[in-house]
């Protein structure tokens, strides 16, 4: 297929290289889990995708132990400023992923971060152990927007749940473990602090914000097949900024900031709020090369402080 818009050269991002948990990345822009299908993109763009990959690391969509079908349709609702999705994490499960997806993703020219989710610490530990021993995998991201089947509590909403989860998972890999925080809780900063105290290497935020849409023709019925869904895109950018700043004030861990990023300015804002990397999600639905464009934009954002680590002292300095 013809290349419908991949830029003709590597992004001009020199000077924005980042060391993230020991991974050497060309620039601070990565993809948000579940929003860029690199295997489909390779089919569409061919080797041009490998030569000019839009992100400095690739984060997989969420992988669970058993295969999942995902939610019934409809799965998307467009908003004035973003969308609500109720995709429901369809995936091939651990065995299917190892057999079919991992070899294809290992061919990407950037480090691979595998995002996993389970409904108990034991399930997550099994996933982390399996991926932790694979050379193709550079780091793991834990999607904790899921109830614990044993306690009924949303894992990522409760500091005690996160502490127990990390205690169960941490011994199974020496690879960097990133905890992806949910915004749907009283205090993501408390959860981040528990993650830091129990061995996480980094946190990422925000996941989607819970929301719903009513059916336009059937009063009282939800539009989405799954009932409620998750809001993403520009509508959540202000929430992301505020939560990244709150989390940065509490932890020294590296932070991946995301939520509604569409431009270099938006990415720089998240870096200024305390993030070390920025992930782009919904924007790639309308522009699959958004990562390259935003990384180039960012390289042109003048901010000498950006070259410095995001310490709490630096935040205080900014006021
Ligand atoms: C269609 C869609 C699918 C997503 N799938 C996942 C997923 O599999 N795992 C996950 O941790 N987050 C998933 N997310 C959340 C994104 O990774 C990201 O946290 C969120 O969308 C905010 O970023 P954005 O506003 O740039 O999209 C998904 C988001 C969307 C819109």
Give a brief rundown of this model:
By secondary structure, this protein is of the alpha/beta class.
Helical percentage:
25-40%
What is the CA-CA span between the terminal residues?
50 Å
Given helix and strand content, the structural type is alpha/beta
What is the N-to-C succession of helices and strands?
Answer: EEEHHEEEHEHEHEHEEEHEHEHHH
Can you lay out the helices and strands and say which pair or pack?
Blueprint: E1 18-20, E2 23-25, E3 29-31, H1 38-45, H2 48-51, E4 58-59, E5 76-79, E6 82-85, H3 93-106, E7 112-116, H4 121-132, E8 137-143, H5 159-169, E9 177-180, H6 188-197, E10 202-205, E11 209-211, E12 229-232, H7 237-250, E13 255-258, H8 264-273, E14 277-280, H9 283-286, H10 290-300, H11 312-318
Parallel strand pairs: 3-14, 4-7, 7-8, 8-9, 9-10, 10-13, 13-14
Antiparallel strand pairs: 1-2, 5-6, 6-12, 11-12
Helix pairs in contact: 4-5, 5-6, 6-7, 7-8, 8-10
The chain binds flavin mononucleotide.
Describe the protein's architecture and organization.
- By secondary structure, the protein is an alpha/beta fold.
- It has eleven helices and 14 strands.
- The strands form three sheets. An eight-stranded parallel β-sheet has the order 3-14-13-10-9-8-7-4. The chain has a four-stranded antiparallel β-sheet with strand order 5-6-12-11, with no helix packed on it.
- Helix 4 (121-132) packs across helix 5 (159-169), helix 5 runs parallel beside helix 6 and helix 8 (264-273) packs across helix 10 (290-300).
- The protein is globular and about 55 Å long.
- Flavin mononucleotide (FMN) binds at residues 32-35, 61-62, 85, 87, 89, 115, 143, 180, 207-208, 232-233, 236, 258-261, 280-282.
- Flavin mononucleotide binds at residues 32-35, 61-62, 85, 87, 89, 115, 143, 180, 207-208, 232-233, 236, 258-261, 280-282.
